[in-house]
Amino acid sequence: MAAKQSEMLEQPQLGLTTKVALRRLHEEIERVLLEHERQGGAERWVSSYQVVSVDNNSPFPSSYRKLRAAFVKRYDSPLGWLSIGTTLLASAALLTTGMMWPALCLLAILALDLFVVVREHNLRRTEVCRKTRHALAELRLAEQHFSEDWRPANYPHLSNPMSPCVSLQWTYRDGNIVNLPWALLVRGDCIVLRPGHISPGPCHELATNRYFQANEIYGAAPQGDPPVKPVARPPLPDLVCSLESTPYLDNLGVCLRSSLKRPPTIYNQQRYLLVTKYIQQWGFISALTITLISGVLRLHGYGLPTDEKHNWRFVLIESPAAAIIPLLPLIFPLMWISMNLWGIARLQCFLKTPQAVGKSSSKSFEEDLDSPSYDYHNIPMMRSSVFRIWMALWRGDSELLPRSANLVQVLGSISALCCVDKKGILSWPNPTAEKVFFLHNSDEAQHEDGSGSQSSSESESDEAPDVDEDHKERGIVAEVLDLTHDQHCPFRLEFDDHEWKAHIKSLKPLGLAILLNTCSPLTHEHYAQFCGHVTAVAMLDKDLVPVTNRYAYALIESSKSFLHGRCLCELAKQIGFTDHATDRFALEGQLASYRHLQPDVVRRDIRFARQLQLSSKVKVPFPHSLSVVMKENPGGYLSLFTQGTADIILDCCDDFWDGKDLRPLCAQDRKRALDFYQRSALTSYCTAFAYRPLRHGIHGALSGPRQSGGECLYLELPPESKLRMQHVDKTHCDFQGGHNVKLSHSISTDSLLFSESKDEDCNDVEGCFEMQCHQVFIGMVTMQYQAQNDIVRLVERLERACIRFVHFSKENELRSRVFSEKMGLESGWNCHISLLSEPDPEPGEKEKDRTPAKPKELPEHAGKPSTNQDTTIDTHENSHYPTSAKVMYISPPAPASESASESVDPPAAKTTDIVGDGPETSYLLGLPTNLESSKTLSSSAPGAISNPDECNPLHAALSADQAQSPDGNDSLQEELAGDAELELEADADPSRLKQRHSLDSAMDENCRSLSTLTESTDQSAPINFDMSNRAKLPRGIENIRPHLEQVDNVPLQVSLFTDCSAEATRQMLDIMQSYGEIVVCLGSSASNANADIFLQADCSIAVEPLYPQVCQDVDAYTEANIQHNKLLWQRHVGKSAGKADDEELLEGGMPGCAMQTPAHTISPLYLSRLLNSLPCSIAVCRDDPLSLVAIIELSRRFSLGLWNCIQYWACCAGSISILNVLCACLSLPPLLPPLLVIYLMCVPVPLIAISLAHIDVDPKIMNRATSKKQTDYDSRAFAFVMWCYGCKFIVAVISLLVSYWLFLSPPNVEPVLDSQELKSDAEDDANFYEFLYLARSCALLAVILHFAFISVTFVHRDYALWQRNPLTNRIWAITCLVLILVHGGICILQLLLDDYLWEQLSTMWMAMLILFGGSLLSMIISELAKFQENKVNARYQRRARLDFGTKLGMNSPF
Questions:
Q1: What is the pTM of this model?
Q2: Which of 132, 226, 635, 1398 has the CA that lies 20 to 30 A from 1130?
Q3: pLDDT for res 142
């Protein structure tokens, strides 16, 4: 890397400076933002389906548009057109009767509602724009004050392993190559496009003006048939390209256009159903109709006899108005909006408040399973702080997107938490060692130890098939040591076996090979370059890596993690090596080799995939090896240390180290090692190690760029693993001797100690290939991505809360399912669905499969090598590549000459092959003599996997093929003997031809990758369980909806989706939402592929993942030099006073760390997170102590309190309206006149309702199942609600009505009621209105008393009065007490001031008793109704939990 940068620095400085790039990015984003705002200002929403354009110069259309657009979507606005119309109608009606004050109050409240609702709509419409403006301000700040302090170390390390969760691009900034986050790329940037990588946007190469489209892959041109002899291949060069556009603008445009298209929350839908539809529509029409009919009947003399004058204005206007006013919105929109913003303010304050000291050691998402709820008492949220945040939200703060994605409502009703990224979020960013495999002599161990330990060798019985008795007599066993990963440290390990040190002699060479090869910092640059070249070469092999990915970026980047970034330092330290163990060694050269797969390996792989009943191929690793030549000082002894895939390593080895001496690697030993590798490679990364001493070194281009002055060549081997060097003496490779026979070619280190003369260093292909032969096999190490412990606990807590954790995996079914088990997800029946569609095979491929297979066939679509040009572009479309992932094939220079040296130009060198005897096969292990030996699979075929019912994997494969073969056992033997017989089987069963073309996942991380598999179970044999999904679930995203409509709902209950592309994930989220699921998306804020997914979810949480490290001793990046640069700058310029509120929240003496810390450090990664997380409500780092369960519990409590408040308000409104409707039916004047109704619905009832929104901490809240969205009318649910809540208020309505009748019918008034002639008497009229005034005054107090006693049952909805004291809600208790005392005092004062009423009070004791005594009865009846309601809710919860845990569908086996 340093050499490459020094070469570039000699030329004129490339690329942009950081200041110029940030300024350009700011200008580009601002231009797109202004264009979006201009388009938004030109659109005039006339209806929800039509958009017309109006002159921008006219002020009226703009105001009309804002007013009109605020009420277009029924779920977004708490105020509808019908409500506005009915309010205006009621106001006009009251004005006609001369009731000025009620009419003016209604008009004033309506004007306030209109102002608030329209303003909220405009704030919602511009919310993402305001959040973008905040990001622009941070960009401007970085450009002006902080960019000059940024150093290359502040960016991710150039040699860091690539991760599909992190989008990075090598870019020139300030003359240096930095690993720039994707979101910071701008037009004019000079990027370094490496082989196998995808272009971040439209760009052209500076040297040749070759053009790359966006998402186009830089691949290798086809080389024709693979070589039959080893040849030198020059690596594909890194291309310096210039970006022609800013890539981030596409994602920004999507965010701006789609930010308002999120589905409505369940509480908005229920609010619409209850308040708008049931109360304001049905209730209004019903009350108006009944009162008008009653008034018409009264005018015609059919009403009950009363003393009220039959004035048509009072009968047809005042009575209906008094009945419908409680059903008008009044201050409900204001209450709804303010309470939602208060909930957001509480959550935002909770996120910004530092946690208690005890939680400082917990990681992100971590939960304590022993405590049922979060310890809220240790995080005091001061109401003053919440109030300040609430006021900021009213002013338009958009940090949590409170209006376009109401985080509290979504989290309060969440039913599925969907995670779309794995590495660094669900798992640790680097894989860790899990198993160590080596061969040793058990006889000698038993002889030395006396008894010896049999535990490890017995465990190997599951790892390898049975061997013959002759092999057992030799005493050679395969030992497997398991390691356990420390969950609190990304790299720490320890051996499970306490007696592992008994094998220290076998482990020491392995540890030294790890330190000198895998973890040597001198090899990182060469490894990364080799990874890119091999990735590009692997793309040409459609059998190894199908090019059908729709998510090419993840596939390409994942290939780097197989060779590169496999830190095993901790394993070497566990073995006993110190940090200075490698000081005596010096790197002399590096040698990289690879080869293509054999055709028979691919065909056996296809058959094996059918045996496992997997919907996609089981991919095999790309064979490769990396060797280092190390010189030991003092002494100058040379050694070759090799690592790579076990197939190519074992082909290079003739001996193995048994811990004491060298022993020949016989057929049985080789078979044991290959069996372990084949099984482990299915679910993990498996690396083999070998060693040999050298007599001579290496120089020239094949020795790597560090030794050759920058030139580099790789060695490509023939794909046939059994084609070895023909001129090598075959006795050197003969294994017929026993274990006591030493091979003639074996070179011990003793023979080199006194060797004075050394051969000359080799620099040709033949010498380098011979150098890799005759090595000593050391052992193998398997590595796994481990699930983080807090994620495991999170999954368990979510399951208790009936929240489904859904993992959208980019890998195939096998690896995804194994990792999901590590997280604790269910892996039984109906456990996973593949979203990858299986396209029909091309006609040309069908014909090709019917022709005899050649040793190596290139894909037809790859094009042919060009003889006149260096570039061949595949322009025609095909089924293997979508338009979004095209490949540009770059032909490398011709193979280097056999005598290539530093002075030879590789492009001008001639191709020189090793002299050989032709393509005839020479078998190292002898010709197959029986069926068992003929069945021995080749080096990389994962066909020797044991079925659950079979111990012998070869027998399992044999029996499976025998069951499927149409010709019986004879045809099976012929099939295994050669390839020609395989064609007969394919012709006999045409259905298999189609399965051969099953295309792997669009986001399968092993596609085009050296790393194939990531995870394994904790069992010693990774596939001792059935990996098939025999429940016949749908495959492919296009088949999900038909399955849900026609079969069952199992796809909605699956916790794992595999083979996921970004588009398939977005479509699946859309399907889940259309079936009532409330979806929260958890994804990486460093990935450029998550914008559409974030926008599709109900709300999203962006997490900055842990970045992978090339080695545990090398930081992924550092921000030490810019730590707290923004905070220090603010203090320096005196601007910290403006941030007093936030500083008080965050630094108010509270120890610990807040869940969401403020941005005190402006770094490249912070700006990238800020830009990529625009559509997300929360953006945090993985190390931040964010407790998802805590914020879900907080949101559930507030949401339940919010809905409790709305239910109580609706019941009170309905009961007041019913009371006045019944008065009209009984020919009585309204009990509560319009002005009194307005007062009740605007002051006492909202105050009591808001006080009921407080819900105490309850452990049962996180054990409840949330309900699905209910948008349609359900008669049964409606009847139950009417019965349940009608019972709670029926006593109040009856008692008020009876007492009102008694008030208006006292004994001294009864005679006058029967005399029609005395009705006009003024004195009697005065007495009647005196009693009416008394009745209404007492009724107001009685209504408040009844409502207060009924609200007792609303304080703790899930508990009886004797189980939970309602006085624990102090706000409610104080509110009710104050309201009762105030209105009671007013009522008594009215009675004391009127002597006549005070005198008549003694005659109305019965009415007073019924009026006030009924409140206690109301509370008792309401409590009984709540008891019945809780019983129904308990049954619903049991049923919901049963449905949550049941995945048995129509095609299930039970």
A1: 0.81
A2: 132
A3: 92
The whole-angstrom separation of Cα 1330 and Cα 1390 is 12
Q: Is the model more confident about 775 or about 1136?
A: 775
Mean pLDDT of the chain: 74
C-alpha 1261/C-alpha 1192 separation (Å) is 10
Structure tokens at 1451: 């095609």
Nearest alpha-carbon partner for 158 in 566, 592, 524: 524
Written as six digits, the tokens of 1168 are 């990238």
Q: Taking Cα atoms as reference points, which of 228, 231, 222, 233 lies closest to residue 855?
A: 228
Q: Is the dihedral of CA 157, 160, 164, 170 positive or negative?
A: positive
Residue type, 1435: R
Q: CA–CA separation, 228 vs 918, rounded Å?
A: 8
| pLDDT of 908 higher than 60 | no
CB-count burial class (<10 Å; 0-12, 13-18, 19+) for 170: middle
C-alpha 557: how far from its chain's center? 18
Neighbour-count burial for 507-517, b at 16+ CB within 10 Å, e otherwise: bbbbbbbbbbb
Is residue 30 exposed (0-12), middle (13-18) or buried (19+ Cβ within 10 Å)? Answer: middle
Question: How many residues would you count in the chain?
Answer: 1454
SS (H, E, C) 1185-1250: CCCHHHHHHHHHHHHHHHHHHHHHHHHHHHHHHHHHHHHHHCCCCCCCCHHHHHHHHHCHHHHHHH
Mean pLDDT for the stretch of residues 1412-1439: 86
Closest CA to 154 of 1107, 1171, 1174: 1107
Please tell me which residue, 97 or 930, carries the higher pLDDT value: 97
Query: How many whole angstroms separate alpha carbon 1315 and alpha carbon 329?
Result: 43
Let me know: does 1132 contact 145? Beta carbons within 8 Å.
no
1069-1105 pLDDT, tens digit each: 999 999 989 999 999 999 999 999 999 999 999 999 9
Q: Give the long-range contacts of residues 983-991, CB within 8 A, separation 24 or more.
A: 983/850, 983/852, 983/853, 986/849, 986/850, 987/850, 989/964
DSSP secondary structure letter of residue 787 = B
What letter represents residue 980's amino acid? A
Tokens found for residue 47: 């209806």
Q: Which residues contact 566 (CB under 8 A, 6 or more apart)?
A: 161, 430, 431, 518, 685, 687, 783
**To 5 degrees, how large is the angle CA 913–CA 916–CA 918?**
100
CB-based contacts of 1034, cutoff 8 Å, min separation 6: 833, 1040, 1042, 1043, 1051
Element (H or E) spanning 807, and its range? strand 804-808
- Number of Cβ within 10 Å of residue 57's Cβ equals 7
Cα–Cα dist 812/836, whole Å: 9
Q: Apex CA 202: angle with CA 198 and CA 208, to 5°?
A: 90
User: How far, in Å, CA of 437 to CA of 606, rounded?
Assistant: 27
* pLDDT in the model for residue 448: 55
What number of CA atoms fall less than 13 Å from residue 1080's CA on the CB side? 26
Contact 256, 127 (CB under 8 A): no
pLDDT digits (tens, 9 = 90+) for 464-522: 444 444 444 467 888 999 998 887 788 888 888 888 888 999 999 999 999 988 888 88
With a cut of 90, say whether residue 240 has pLDDT above it.
Answer: yes
Close Cβ partners of 1319 (under 8 Å, ≥ 6 residues apart): 307, 309, 1312, 1325
Cis, bond preceding 634 (omega within 30 deg of 0): yes
Percent of the chain past pLDDT 90, that is, above it, reads 28
